[in-house]
Write a structure and sequence with these properties.
This protein is mainly β. The chain is built from no helices and eleven strands. Strands 2, 4, 5, 6, 9, 10 and 11 form a seven-stranded mixed β-sheet that branches. A four-stranded antiparallel β-sheet has the order 1-3-8-7, with no helix packed on it. The chain is elongated.
Length: about 120
């Protein structure tokens, strides 16, 4: 069983910072990519940042220069450092990972349970 457990959400004032963590546990062979998505009330889930196994990262235009995604491969953990937060960043943030459970298996998508980030003005 593979689990993604997120932590680090909360309430912060505009201009503040938060750091999200996502720890992967269970029987895995390799994590191909890890990413962060968010979903605000009444809106579709959108990509925030995604790190592929080679280390390159893609960011949504709305967070470039403010958010930094990283991963610690030894700990199977991803992080999202969010600075200069704005009220429009308020959403439930979800961790996503593309995980191979065996050498000859394809990668499947796994999701965390989500963590609420609320930015007050």
């Amino acid at each position: 069983q593979v689990q993604l457990v997120e932590s680090g959400g909360g309430l912060v004032q505009a201009g503040g910072s938060l750091r999200l963590s996502c720890a992967v546990s269970g029987s895995i062979f390799r994590i191909n990519a890890m990413g962060w998505y968010r979903q605000a009330p009444g809106k579709q889930r959108e990509l925030v940042a995604r790190i592929i196994s080679g280390g390159s990262t893609n960011y949504a235009d709305s967070v470039k220069g403010r958010f930094t995604a990283s991963r610690d491969n030894a700990k199977n953990t991803a992080y999202l450092q969010m600075n200069s937060l704005k009220p429009e960043d308020t959403a439930v943030y979800y961790c996503n990972a593309a995980i191979k459970r065996g050498l000859w298996e394809g990668a499947d998508d796994y999701w965390g349970q989500g963590t609420q980030v609320t930015v007050s003005s």
